[in-house]
Amino acid sequence: MIVYVPCDSAALAVGADEVALALQAEADRRGLAIELRRNSSRGLFWLEPLVEVVTPAGRIAFGPVAEGDVTSLFDADWSASHPLHLGRPEDMPFLQKQERLTFARMGITRPLSLADYEAFEGFAGLRKALLVAPTEVVQQVLDSGLRGRGGAAFPAGIKWKTVAAAQATQKYIVCNADEGDSGTYSDRMTMEGDPFMLIEGMAIAAVATGATQGYVYIRSEYPHAVATMRRAIELATAAGFLGDKLLGSAHSFHLHVRMAAGSYVCGEETAMLESLEGKRGVVRAKPPLPALSGLFGKPTVINNVITLASVPIILARGAAFYRNYGVGRSHGTLPIQLAGNIKHGGLVEKAFGVTLRELMYDFGGGSASGRPIKAVQVGGPLGAYVPESQWDIPLDYEAYAAVGAVVGHGGIVVHDDRANMARLARYAMEFCAIESCGKCTPCRIGSTRGVEVIDRIRDGENRPQQVALLRDLCDTMVHGSLCAMGGMTPFPVLSALNHYPQDFGLPV
User: Could you tell me which CATH class the domain 332-414 is placed in?
Assistant: First the structure.
């Protein structure tokens, strides 16, 4: 009998290791031979640990399984009579309604099994990339319409084309895995659950641009991701997918992991480069652009985890296949992370165009508290709070920008009607003040003064004048900050002020 227990850190946090040990011990006690496989997570976090057993009808899921449930599962012979029986995962509405391209293997394969990865189209994209000219690889990425999934939504192919055309003795591929946004975990899930996909995407980028060295910059708060990526790189190198002469070709690419210290601003690409070079993580003024003068002054492709992880399927199935998903100028799919006060928190991969209302109710099941949802923050701690009047806007970069919101990394944090939006606006300013690198005045001083101004508004001190001052301050931060740290902090502040004035003591 084959039994799957996830090794994703979200599953570990709720006892997956203990469940795995209990399963083996119970099988031994009964004299049953079982093969325990540690798979990635399917992303149904409210059901973790999600245990699956292989049957003639396919894999059958049970969850959430606690250590104390193990004996009863064996007693019931893993049948539908057990109260934790969920049936086949692929038949569950939460998964059925998704469009999983990047996360197609998630929950199915074992993270460090090259055989599992290759059995599900793994390295097909790299093999195709090695058969064509590097310019053709770049063109495929351009034609796919892939935009940076880290938040800025800059066309990935343009970065690649710029680096490919640059003349230099050394070029780099850098993966920004410094995932620090509230409510986001798709980068972590990818590195822990499907690390070879990220490796393949980076190797394709190297082939396309002529880079021979790469770095994955992972925050120290992700120890499981760090360990998994390091081991995956070792395995991929031994198998010829990394190192000298990739799969016998003329291309070489060496990949390394570097651990970040947990500074939020190092999610900004130039601050990350400073950190990678062993310096204090502060923002670089642009120009020069990292594509021309990046890591150690050399041409550098910098992409987010999900951006690079989206590349293998583009090369494997063609640009048109990927481009046909989505709406407007937002092509492909986005891994959306449901978090906060939500009944069914987890990973949803959908083509651009889905609405917040669909995500929160059709997938998320409404609030965990059962109370009405008041506000949804989209795009991390510096994303705007989206009121109910905007929940039917399609999830699309341009559509969200038109209402002063951002799609960002796809993190969605839900708040019910008990949330105090003035307090949350203050938190945004305070967060910026704490996390600012301090290099530019609008961010460093603006956020500090912003906290003080919001406090005066909440205390009822000269409210009309203080509101005008806050708006002016936000305008200065948006247009005067060197990077998005200060430039985006006003988004949650202004959205809270505009849509929930009553929480600031202002007339509706």
Answer: alpha beta
Q: Does the domain at residues 2-92 carry the CATH identifier 3.40.30.10?
A: yes
Amino acid at 398: E
54: nearest Cα among 78, 25, 23, 90 = 78
The whole-model pTM stands at 0.96
Write down how long the chain is: 508
Class of domain 421-504: mainly alpha
Mean pLDDT value across the chain: 96
Query: What CA–CA distance (Å, rounded) separates 441 from 224?
Result: 37
Classify burial at 397, counting beta carbons within 10 Å of its beta carbon; exposed 0-12, middle 13-18, buried 19 or more: buried
Confidence at 496, pLDDT banded by 50, 70, 90: very high
Question: 338-366 burial, b if ≥16 CB within 10 A, otherwise e?
Answer: bbbbbbbbbbbbbbbbbbbebbbbbbbeb
Place of tokens 């998630």: 106
Check if the beta carbon of residue 12 is closer than 8 Å to that of residue 42: no
104-133: pLDDT as tens digits:
999 999 999 999 999 999 999 999 999 999
Encoded amino acid at 383, one letter: G
